[in-house]
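We modelled the chain as a single entity of 119 amino acids. Its sequence is:
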Amino acid sequence: MTFDARQLKFDDKGLIPAIAQDNETGEVLMMAWMNLEAVEKTLETRRVTYWSRSRQSFWIKGETSGHVQELVDFRFDCDKDCLLVLIRQTGAACHTNRRTCFYTAVRNGEEVELMAPMP
């Protein structure tokens, strides 16, 4: 069956959450938003493309930083309202220069940083 991105369930702003996961390690690296065109660009180019809500423009991960996300597999959940992009990550995924955006934990009621920025 041919995939049509219009079958996905976008929110009232035309967006869908996309979770980026390292294809080799399974580590969850980040969450960002895609619109229909970002989904189509990602599938066409194999370079993960998001929609920046703050800039109201496309954001091709790594275009300025060099921290590229190469698409390995593209999945959606059973409700078709959330995406999982399995990627090959070059460099940091987070804008703080950390491997993952999920570097803060709550332990015994305290915030704990689990990793420092990459050198």
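As a brief sanity check on the tokenised model: The chain is about 10% helix and 40% strand. The first strand starts at residue 16 and ends at 22.
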